[in-house]
Amino acid sequence: MKAVALLSGGLDSVVSMLLGQKQVEIVLALTVNYGQKAARQEIDASQRIAHNMNIPHQVINLPFMQDLNSDLLSPNQSPIINPWVPNRNGLFVNLAACLAENIGAQMVICGFNQEEANTFPDNSSAFIEALNQALYYSTRNHVFARSFVQNMTKEDIARQALHLGLDLDSLWSCYQDGDKPCGVCPSCVTNKNAFRKVGAKC
Q1: What is the pLDDT of residues 119-154, one digit of tens each?
Q2: Residue 202 within a domain
Q3: What is the 3-state secondary structure (H, E, C) of the chain?
């Protein structure tokens, strides 16, 4: 089976893609630039990772999203209090499904996980199930989405990253831009805690 991977360059999407590669042929890694603060770093990280895995990489630009209400889209280094982006995951999976159908792939790999599903309902198994019901009708080859870290906590994912030999310095999970992760945004704090629990430095 062939797959398109949604790749942000962060821990969850990278580990999910690495696990997925053991079961399917990933024919495209897709990164979305929607005006997020960390777009430059996410794209750079995704390009490096895809290149190292010999997977073609594509960036899709969605400039209209810059006008949406989310702290991830504000143009400065202000604190991240509201990281929610309206319908982001639904839109991204559908974009990936569109490309997947066009190139004969049937799976979209994403990095949704159990821990973030507690805060973001569009990371949940129920969301994936509902989305796949719609994709069954909207794609002729019945594209479906799957996360290979769906039932994992951040600690589980961090442990998998170490087991897979992933270079942690190659990732970018920070919500902010900069030469190095800010260390204080919700994503940085969550990942640091997870890696601390599994005895890794990041």
Answers
A1: 899 999 999 999 999 999 999 999 999 999 999 999
A2: no
A3: CEEEEECCCCHHHHHHHHHHHCCCEEEEEEEEECCCCCHHHHHHHHHHHHHHCCCCEEEEECHHHHHCCCHHHCCCCCCCCCCCCCCHHHHHHHHHHHHHHHCCCCEEEECCCHHHHCCCHHHCHHHHHHHHHHHHHHCCCCCEEEECCCCCCHHHHHHHHHHCCCCHHHCCCCCCCCCCCCCCCHHHHHHHHHHHHCCCCC
User: What count of other Cβ atoms lies within 10 Å of the Cβ of residue 18?
Assistant: 22
- The domain total for the chain is 1
Would residue 147 count as lying in a domain? yes
Average pLDDT over residues 97-118: 96
- Give Rg (Cα) of the chain: 16
Strand order in the sheet with 144-147: 57-61, 25-33, 2-6, 107-110, 144-147
Q: The domain that contains 61 carries what CATH number?
A: 3.40.50.620
Rounded CA-CA distance 7/13 in Å is 5
Residue 160 lies in a domain: yes
In a domain, 101, yes or no: yes
User: pTM surpassing 0.90?
Assistant: yes
